[in-house]
Every structure is written in C-alpha cells, then in structure tokens.
Amino acid sequence: MQLSSEAMAALRAAGFVGTWDTDVPAGRSVLDAGAATVLAGNPDLAGQPLALETALGRVHPEDRDWVFGKIRRVRQTGGPVSLEFRVLSGPGEVRWILNRGFLASDPSGMLHGRGAYLDVTDLYTRSGRLTNGAGPGPGGALEAAADHGIQAHAALERHGDTHLQMLSGMLLLGIGRTLAGRMP
C-alpha cells in the first residue's frame, strides 16, 4: 500500500519508526527499513525473515526478558500486541518504543501478525518516568494489572453480567487511584 507524501509526513511527525510482519509458525519477523534500523540496529536486515532475538536486538537489557516473554505468549495465543519498551539506539542513548499490532489466524489457520513501531521518547523524562507523572514505564506489575483489568472489564461487558461488571469497574478504579497516587 502506497501512502501519500502528506500521510507519510504525518506518520513521521507522530513518531512512526517502521513496521513488522510475523510468521508465527516459522518464528520469524520481517521488518521494514525503519524498524530494522531502530530495533535491530541494521537497515540491511530490512525485508529478511529474522529471529526475535535479531529483530529486537536493541531492546534495553532491563526490558528484554519481559518484552520477549510477552511476545512469546502472544505468539501462542494470538490477539493484540501492545508494548512500550526501551531500546539502545546509540552509546548512552535510550529511546522509548511503542509496539502495536495484532496476531490472528490466516486462511490456512496459521497465526500471522502485523504491526508498527512508534518512537514515544518525548513522553518520558530522563528518569524514565512518564512526563504526565503516571509512573514508570510498562513492565511494572500495577501497569500490567491495569491492562488485564481493562481487558477483563470489556469481556464482562460483552458477557452482560452487571454484578461482575461492577466488581471489575471497582478494581479498575482502585488501580487507577493507586497509579494516580504515584504522581509527584
């Protein structure tokens, strides 16, 4: 799909880094040039099927285990991908990357996924805290609980049990208050 120059300019202004395309059974991802440069550290890897360790070779060592773990889990189940993590983009330089996408069964029943990376470094201070004061980046237990709580609440809304919806809403309220309490 070709995008107009205006659309590409808007994507770049929004922090667009690049795209990924994953063949789950093969355990390989293909990155475009932007993603290969920022995530793998080598634009020459663009368009080549890469193992996870190569495709995400620049993930910050402190984020590596939870990022790879979450990706491996979604590769087993399919579904949405939403991760925010750090990459080492140069000597002493850390960038925050948002990875969004979706893995679903293709017509043959095999899991396949596509997504994009955005550079969201501007949302963080040098200390790694969100500039809006919401606390440390992803990977924290409370942030993970909030993500799961939102998914559970949405599922309960589809189920239609008002009592369970109320309970999940109360849980989300409690998590939100605790996260808000982290604000300086």
Task: Give your account of this protein's structure.
- The chain has 184 residues and is of the alpha+beta class.
- The protein has 2 domains: 119 residues, PAS domain (Beta-Lactamase, 2-Layer Sandwich); 40 residues, no CATH class.
- Helix content is 41%, strand content 25%.
- The chain has a 5-stranded antiparallel beta sheet.
- Strand 1 and strand 2 form a beta hairpin.
- 17% of the residues are buried.
Question: Helices, strands, pairings?
Answer:
Layout: H1 5-13, E1 16-23, E2 28-31, H2 33-40, H3 52-55, H4 61-77, E3 79-90, E4 93-105, E5 111-119, H5 141-159, H6 162-180
Helix pairs in contact: 5-6
What would the CATH topology of the largest domain be?
Beta-Lactamase
Q: Unreliable stretches, pLDDT < 50, 5 or more residues?
A: 132-139
Q: Give the beta-strand count.
A: 5
Residues in helices, as a percent range: 40-55%
The CATH architecture of the largest domain is: 2-Layer Sandwich
Oligomer: single chain
Cα distance, first to last residue? 45 Å
Number of domains: 2
CATH homologous group name of the largest domain: PAS domain
Specify Rg, calculated over alpha carbons: 18 Å
Pfam families: PAS_3
Domain PAS fold-3: 53-110
Protein name: PAS domain-containing protein
